[in-house]
Amino acid sequence: MNEKKVVVENTLTPYINFLKDSGYDVYTLYKNENINNIKSPDYKAIIVSGLDVLSTTDASYDNPPVPILEAKGRTPEEIYNLLESRYK
């Protein structure tokens, strides 16, 4: 079982590719349409382009029950390092 599962917004292709290449199992988020399907605590984090993306839906910090990381202003490498250091 792969412990390295993350959810990444579909527009963040460089992040998706980098994390996949780094051994992560990436679940793609399409404009939050499927954010309510993310109930599983198996995911380490949700990576979105910006937190403003979440405000357009009924997403909240309780749902989904995993950390949300903002990609804006960070490289794919920085997101990867955050995941590795924070969520081991």
Characterise this structure.
The structure is a single chain. The protein is α/β, with parallel strands linked by helices and 88 residues long. The protein is 23% helix and 22% strand. It contains two helices and four strands, in the order E-H-E-E-E-H. The chain has helices at 13-21, 76-86, and strands at 5-9, 25-29, 43-48, 68-70. Strands 2-1-3-4 form a four-stranded parallel beta sheet, covered by helices on one side. Helix 1 links the parallel strand 1 (5-9) and strand 2. Helix 1 (13-21) crosses helix 2. The longest helix has 11 residues, at 76-86. The chain is globular and about 25 Å long. The two termini are 15 Å apart.
Radius of gyration: 12 Å
Sheet/helix structural class? alpha/beta
Largest sheet: 4 strands, parallel
How many β strands by DSSP?
4
What is the general shape? globular
End-to-end distance, in Å? 15 Å
What ranges have pLDDT less than 50 throughout 5 or more consecutive residues? none
Which strand order spans the largest sheet, edge to edge or round the barrel? 2-1-3-4
Helix content: 10-25%
Mean pLDDT: 80
What is the string of helix and strand elements?
EHEEEH
- DSSP strand content: 15-25%
**Count of helices?**
2
SSE topology:
Layout: E1 5-9, H1 13-21, E2 25-29, E3 43-48, E4 68-70, H2 76-86
Parallel strand pairs: 1-2, 1-3, 3-4
Keywords:
2 helices; four-stranded parallel beta sheet; 88 residues; globular; alpha/beta; 4 strands; 22% strand
Summarize the structure.
The protein has 88 residues and is α/β, with parallel strands linked by helices.
